[in-house]
Design a protein that fits this description.
The chain is an alpha/beta fold. The chain is built from 4 helices and 6 strands. It has a 6-stranded mixed beta sheet.
Length: about 160
């Protein structure tokens, strides 16, 4: 394998309500076949929303792909995939305003994601959620763990039992 494969997901029980608790998860396979599972809650001082969690998952995955190789990032979030593939260039051209001339939400995360896109070959691909895709299902499980307040950092070497 000559690329990183990353599956990312966010979760937010009670999204949009005062008691919402968001978390993110990412499942990464590096070029040597090692896997890394990560999850964490969205920090309490940040908006507790599903969109924030989805973007944090993507950003955290990109941060962990540290070798200068291409990255293929799979997400079941249209916000993440269309945002990166279609909307980001227009947001930047329009001074970080969306099509409704309003400020882009989560601009702080988008700017960091954009830095990775500028420096690396990153391909964002949409995958249907809850359709049995093993990588996406793993990322979903991790995101749910993050939303429950768990922090996960599990590295598995190729060929080892999980």
């Amino acid at each position: 394998m000559t690329t990183y494969i990353a599956y990312v997901d966010g979760a937010c029980p009670n999204n949009g309500k005062p008691n919402a608790k968001a978390g993110w998860g990412t499942y990464i396979i590096n070029p040597e076949g090692k896997t890394l599972k990560l999850a964490a809650p969205v920090p309490r001082d940040q908006p507790q929303t599903n969109n924030r969690a989805e973007l944090l998952a993507a950003l955290e995955a990109l941060k962990r792909c540290n070798k200068p190789m291409p990255i293929t990032l799979y997400s079941d979030s249209q916000l993440v995939v269309k945002g990166a593939n279609e909307w980001l260039p227009n947001w930047k051209t329009k001074g970080w305003k969306n099509s409704n001339k309003k400020p882009v939400e989560h601009r702080d995360l988008w700017e960091q994601i954009d830095q990775f896109i500028q420096r690396r070959e990153v391909t964002f691909i949409w995958v249907g959620g809850h359709t049995g895709n093993p990588g996406n299902e793993e990322a979903d499980t991790l995101a749910c763990r993050g939303a429950r307040g768990e922090c996960v950092h599990e590295l598995t070497v190729a060929g080892e039992a999980a």
